[in-house]
Design a protein that fits this description.
- Belongs to the serine/threonine dehydratase family.
- It holds the Pfam family PALP.
- This is threonine ammonia-lyase.
- Helices cover about 40% and strands about 20% of the residues.
- By secondary structure, the protein is α/β, with parallel strands linked by helices.
- Strands 1-10-9-8-11-3-2 form a seven-stranded mixed beta sheet, with helices on both faces.
- α6 links the parallel β5 and β6.
- It starts with a strand and ends with a strand.
Length: about 425
């Protein structure tokens, strides 16, 4: 896990909330009092629309962090993520004439569903552009809410270009996923809920893409006078905020690669960026291994299904448990995950946790050779999931067989025990 800016250790944590936080920034930046008023107005707008999602105490995370940890379950929100908050507020504030022209959005899935549902609730037509390869369940859910789904490009940024062009050509109102004050206000209502459910919160961990959610939460907490540190969490393979904060302006990343499609955003939004750099304590990154391991633990220990982006806050807490003052609230931002991706992520998480092994072992090509190998594995309680033989190959001696094994283990210590037993028995082990 890495942090933006200088030393982010517990004894030297950044805190951008100096002075009277209700005063406008000296450079004419956001007025926190106005932001809070906007968020409170959004809260009134969302009554009866967005759910007040549960906050679950997590003992298994608390044991690691050394104090109370709570999971804010936006994966249980309507449409499966926090996005309905901002989308509904944005569309509700349009004029009747604007709503009559319809709305258009671009999204890999969660914003798409939020816009589609909000548009249906407000009797407005919605067109949504998705990147090619967007998760099928997210596409189907968006269609089920009544939106017209179209595909363009392979990234959210490419889909955004198509959506903006469509808006210019048709007059439809473009609903940006994060770069608008109304979106920030809607997402900020989550911060008000956090304060109501955990008034003494000291740290809030928020998964971060374009920045609408983390900015809204930070503005809500700071505006209400909370001293809690709000920390954004990005996937290391799609982390635009750390270099942007270092440069003092939004800076696009040249390349993105992450399973967390919900926070794979190439450049911070200008509106949330100004809030983030003033009232967010820092933005840190987590690896793909941490994301998959956290998703697995949330499913096993918390009985909560989340998407990779939704697991980012928990990944940060697991990576550096001593860096965050409890009580900690980790926001589970969404639960919309493709079942095919879920299978791959769970396997990846089991590997990261040392509970899954894929290896190759050379055994004599003679009766009983494979049985002897399997007997050694049985002695250490290794569960064999798959076995494949190969009798020919580069570097394979005549009379030997290459055996590819997939094993389920109980963890890293058990994994080391298996390797020690095989090597002690004279087997050459290679990882595949």
């Amino acid at each position: 896990m890495t942090a933006a800016g200088p030393d982010n250790s517990p004894g030297n944590r950044p805190d951008n909330r100096s002075g009277d936080s209700r005063d406008p920034a000296p450079d004419g930046g956001p007025d926190l009092g106005a932001l809070l008023a906007d968020i409170e107005d959004a809260e009134r707008t969302l009554r009866g629309v967005a759910r007040t999602t549960p906050m679950e105490a997590s003992r298994w995370l608390a044991d690691r962090v050394g104090g109370p940890v709570h999971l804010k379950c936006e994966n249980l929100q309507r449409a499966g993520s926090f996005k309905i908050r901002g989308a509904y507020v944005r569309i509700s504030r349009l004029s009747q004439e604007e709503r009559a022209r319809g709305v258009v959005a671009a999204s890999a899935g969660n914003h798409a569903q939020g816009v589609a549902l909000a548009a249906r609730l407000l009797d407005t037509r919605a067109t949504v552009f998705m990147p090619v390869g967007a998760p099928i369940p997210k596409e189907e859910a968006t269609r089920s809410y009544g939106a017209d789904v179209r595909f363009h490009g392979h990234t959210i940024d490419e889909a955004l270009v198509a959506a903006r062009q469509y808006a210019q050509e048709t007059g439809a109102v473009f609903i940006h996923p994060f770069d608008h004050a109304d979106i920030l206000a809607g997402q900020g209502t989550l911060g008000l809920e956090i304060l109501e459910q955990c008034p003494d919160v000291a740290t809030v961990l928020v998964s971060t893409g374009g920045g609408g959610l983390v900015a809204g939460v930070a503005a809500a907490l700071a505006g209400r006078g909370s001293k809690a540190r709000v920390v954004g969490v990005q996937a290391a393979g799609a982390a635009a905020y750390p270099p942007s904060l270092a440069a003092g302006r939004p800076v696009p990343v040249e390349r993105m690669q992450t399973m967390a499609d919900g926070i794979a955003v190439g450049c911070p939004g200008g509106v949330p960026f100004e809030v983030v750099r003033r009232w967010v304590a820092g933005v840190i990154t987590v690896s793909e291994e941490s994301l998959s391991r956290s998703l697995l633990l949330l499913l096993e220990r918390g009985k909560l299904l989340v998407e990779p982006a939704g697991a980012a806050a928990v990944a940060a807490a697991l990576d550096a448990p001593g860096a965050f003052e409890p009580p900690v609230v980790a926001v589970l931002s969404g639960g919309n995950i493709d079942p095919l991706l879920l299978m791959r992520v769970l396997r990846h998480g089991m590997i990261a946790a040392g509970r899954y092994m894929s290896l190759r072992v050379c055994v004599p090509d003679q009766p009983g050779g494979l049985a002897a190998l399997l007997s050694k594995l049985a002695e250490v309680d290794a569960n064999v999931l798959d076995v494949v033989h190969q009798r020919t190959g580069a570097g394979l001696h005549l009379g030997d067989v290459d055996v590819a094994l997939q094993l389920e283990t109980r963890g890293k210590q058990h994994r080391e025990e298996i390797l020690h037993r095989l090597r002690s028995a004279g087997y050459t082990v290679n990882f595949s």
